[in-house]
Amino acid sequence: MWDHRPSADELLAERVAAGWSPVPTATRDGDVVLGHACKLPRPA
Fold this sequence. Notes:
Blueprint: H1 8-17, E1 25-27, E2 30-32
Antiparallel strand pairs: 1-2
């Protein structure tokens, strides 16, 4: 599928384009998106 080693940003963009969305994790500080997906804007 890739002609090069994809970056984390490229992989995240592909997942989102395919309909994936991150699921927040409950923490002491409230619900947060962990990992590289935390770069995505939070839904309103």
